[in-house]
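Self-study notes.
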Amino acid sequence: MAIDVHRILGPGLLESTYKECLHYKIKKSGYFVEKEKTILLIFENTKLDCGFRIDLSVENKLVLELKAVDVLNDVHLAPVLIYRKSGNFKLGLLINFNVSH
């Protein structure tokens, strides 16, 4: 679905545009998807409200972190790992829409 969104829109748009379109496509396909889901940070076995928001959560199993940047680096992956652990999600995916393919 993310590839379909990218094919239709192409690179160069704001992250929020891709998020809205991908949310629409996932929901239209019949999956339970949440946008901007709040998640607590687990720090020293304590849940803290740090204002974390997952871009998209699918079926409460998959975290989608969306970017529209020139180059992905380790700092972009860190939230995916934190969200997976804190939210007890099975999978996490980092998607960059600001590339040609």
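Second protein, same conventions, sequence then structure:
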Amino acid sequence: MKVIKGFKDFFMRGNVVDLAVGVIIGTAFNQVVNSLVVDIITPLIGLLGGTPDFSALKIGPVTIGKFINAILNFLIVALAIYSIIVVPMNQLKEREKAKENLAPPEPPEDVKLLREILEELKKKP
């Protein structure tokens, strides 16, 4: 029974649930990114210089073409994620930071009161 209680405590901590949600969302997002690469970016590259397929490339008995295709696919996916997610998120963070820097935070009420008292004391001879 201690094992079941321990597992329940571990599972209910939240980390496992957060991880599961992250994996599920990541899997769904993987399908979106793969579709972007396969259905949009690769055909556009194909229009420019032919479909990039190195699968038949060999160096002696070693078939290196599939490895080159995997590297190119990785680079295209990384570029797509960077361009579509990272750059816009960084721009949003910069905008939020700029908004925070424009308006100084309002001082607390006790600081305001102390400033008023200081001004009144300065007026007295």
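Instructor comment on the second fold: The chain has four helices and two strands.
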